[in-house]
Amino acid sequence: GESVGLHLPTLSVQEGDNSIINCAYSNSASDYFIWYKQESGKGPQFIIDIRSNMDKRQGQRVTVLLNKTVKHLSLQIAATQPGDSAVYFCAENTGRRALTFGSGTRLQVQP
Amino acid sequence: NAGVTQTPKFQVLKTGQSMTLQCAQDMNHEYMSWYRQDPGMGLRLIHYSVGAGITDQGEVPNGYNVSRSTTEDFPLRLLSAAPSQTSVYFCASSRTSGGWGEQYFGPGTRLTVT
């Protein structure tokens, strides 16, 4: 069935290191993917998106990689900062008029 | 712009009570949606709307009603609250429909049903 999942529920990194958050999806028809950041007590916030005709997209300190062969999505955060501590969700557009969200990965940045 | 606003921020209901969660956006977005988020889980789509007068069901629509009489407002009604509806509810809007493009989320409503 259609599903979006994450490999690691919690990721702990040292401040200044690079972080990699992974996401697996099962619907090969998905053509659009988004990463969201959610801080405690707040709504999700858009980070970066990528369409299926791309395999890499870069933003400010963030990079999203898409591997359609193995249905894998990753979010790379460079020089992780304490303010990056949050729960990160990947979401996919499966062709319906909505996004399907994964269960989230908590990123903890250690000073 | 205020973005997406939701009221109330917190609500406690007794089983069987009904209530309406309010959502409004001032960005003239056509697409609006309601999600619920349970502990340790991602967001699940309840209902969505691609424009005024048009609504459709999402993944978990049972027990909820919506209407979209204006572009700005998209209220979510709980008909007869049940403990299983205890959750955090998020409203979102985006300029484009179909889940494409950046969705702006409200701050959420934390609902407890006893």
Task: For the structure shown, list the relevant keywords.
heterodimer; A: 111 residues; mainly beta; six-stranded mixed beta sheet; five-stranded antiparallel beta sheet; B: 114 residues; seven-stranded mixed beta sheet; four-stranded antiparallel beta sheet; globular
Structure description:
The complex is a heterodimer of chains A (111) and B (114). In chain A, 0% of the residues lie in helices and 54% in strands. Chain A is mainly β and 111 residues long. In chain A, strands 2, 4, 5, 9, 10 and 11 form a six-stranded mixed β-sheet that branches. In chain A, strands 1-3-8-7-6 form a five-stranded antiparallel β-sheet, with no helix packed on it. In chain A, a hairpin with a 5-residue loop joins β9 and β10. The N terminus of chain A is likely disordered. Chain B is 0% helix and 49% strand. Chain B is built from no helices and eleven strands. In chain B, the strands form two sheets. In chain B, strands 2, 4, 5, 6, 9, 10 and 11 form a seven-stranded mixed β-sheet that branches. Chain B has a four-stranded antiparallel β-sheet with strand order 1-3-8-7, with no helix packed on it. In chain B, a hairpin with a 5-residue loop joins β4 and β5. With 114 residues, chain B is an all-beta fold. Chains A and B meet through β5, β9 and β10 of A and β5 and β10 of B.
Short description:
The complex is a heterodimer of chains A (111) and B (114). Chain A has 111 residues and is mostly beta strands. Chain A has strands at 4-5, 10-14, 19-25, 32-38, 45-51, 56-58, 62-67, 72-77, 86-93, 99-101, 105-110.
What does the overall shape of chain A look like? Answer: globular
**What portion of residues of chain B is helical?**
under 10%
Summed over residues and divided by their number, the pLDDT of chain B gives a mean of 92
Largest sheet of chain B: 7 strands, mixed
Number of strands of chain A: 11
Helicity level of chain A: under 10%
The pair of chains with the biggest contact is: A-B, 22 and 28 residues
For the report, how would you describe the main beta sheet of chain A?
Answer: 6 strands, mixed
Let me know the number of strands of chain B. Answer: 11
**Could you tell me the strand content of chain B as a percent range?**
over 45%
Q: First CA to last CA of chain A: what distance?
A: 40 Å
The helix/strand order of chain A is EEEEEEEEEEE
Number of helices of chain B: 0
